[in-house]
Each structure stands twice: as structure tokens, then as C-alpha cells.
Amino acid sequence: MGTTDLRVGHCGTQCVLAATRERLWIVHGHSTVRHYLKNCQTCLLWKARACGQVMAPLPKCRVTPGFRAFPCTGVDYFGQILVKVGRKHTKRHGCLFTCMACRAVHLEVAYSLTANSFVQAFFRFVHRRGPVREMYNDRGTNFLPTEREIREGVHCWNQSQIH
After folding, report:
1. Are the CB atoms for 119 and 90 separated by under 8 Å?
2. Residue 53 is assigned to a structural domain of this protein
3. Which of 107, 71, 105 is nearest to 92 (CA)?
4. In a 3-state reduction of DSSP, which class is residue 5?
5. Are residues 79 and 147 in the same domain?
6. Which of 1, 112, 153, 163 has the fewest CB atoms within 10 Å, i.e. is most exposed?
7. Which residues, at least 6 apart from 96, have a Cβ–Cβ distance to it below 8 Å?
8. pLDDT tens string for the chain (163 positions)?
């Protein structure tokens, strides 16, 4: 049946059985061919269904439209960019802010990977685009001290003067 399969091309039980019967007769041919084709690796690969992609549920800020861009923002750093300052070259990093609802992008220059540099880039972003309600990041080493600094700064505010 191997040469018959190559000639017929795995097209099904009846077709393979008819091509086989041109040369020889198989007792219980239909069930034999069906059993052979059921275990054929080539047929199994051709008849395999594509796996469906399972996607996790999106965060609420991704599906809720806003009135302005960047109320919910994702942030990440990218690359080392070689910048010429005067006569020497220095390395800078890009800070990528992206709106979670409309996928708008804002780029800021971070002068280093320190928390202080990120705070400066974040304040430049906020002054340009407005306040941020939620901030998502990858919990990088420069984002954690920044969060601690901001929490301590808010805690130190004089609440009586604010009210």
C-alpha cells in the first residue's frame, strides 16, 4: 500500500482502495485501508486542526475609552543611544510612555538608569501630557525606588495646608 499511497496522495479510504484494487484484492479491504490511513502520520499532519490562541482578559483600562490620552499609562526603558555632547559621546536611554487605551506613544530622554533620572523623565511627561491615574511597568530596578520616593513625598505633605 506504500507505493499506492504515494501515487494516490492520501486522498481518502475509497480512492486508496480503488487504486489498490487495480493490482490486487485485499480481504476486508475497506476496514484495512481505513485502519492504515487512520494511523498514517502524513494524513494526521494534514488533517490536524490549528490550535486556537487563548488570550488573557485585558485590564479594564485597556478596554475603557478615555476623554484624553494617557490616563492609564505603561512605561518602559529602551536601548542605549549614543549621543554626541560637545566633542564626546555619552550614552542615553529612552523612556517610552504608552497610553493603554488608544496606544499613543510619548518618548522622553532618561540620562541614566537611576531612579532620579526616571523621576525627572516622568515629571516632564506629566507636565506635557497631564496627570496619570494608573501606571503600569515591568517592575524594573529603577521603577521601584521611584515608587518609594513618590510615596514618601506624598506622606510628608502637610495635609492641613492642602485642605
Report:
1. no
2. no
3. 107
4. helix
5. yes
6. 163
7. 75, 76, 77, 78, 105, 106, 107
8. 556 556 676 777 888 888 888 888 888 888 888 888 888 887 778 778 888 888 888 888 888 777 788 889 999 999 888 989 899 999 999 999 999 888 899 999 998 888 888 889 999 999 999 998 888 888 777 777 777 777 787 777 766 666 6
**How far apart are alpha carbons 83 and 86 in whole angstroms?**
10
In a domain, 162, yes or no: no
C-alpha 52/C-alpha 104 separation (Å) is 29
Answer whether residue 144 is part of any domain: yes
Question: What's the total number of domains in the chain?
Answer: 2
Question: Tell me, what CATH number does 106's domain have?
Answer: 3.30.420.10
Residue span of the structural domain in which 97 resides? 61-156
Torsion of CA 108, 112, 116, 122, to 10 degrees: 10
Q: Residue 123 corresponds to which cell in the numbers above?
A: 515629571
| Closest C-alpha to 126, from 135, 136, 138, 116 | 135
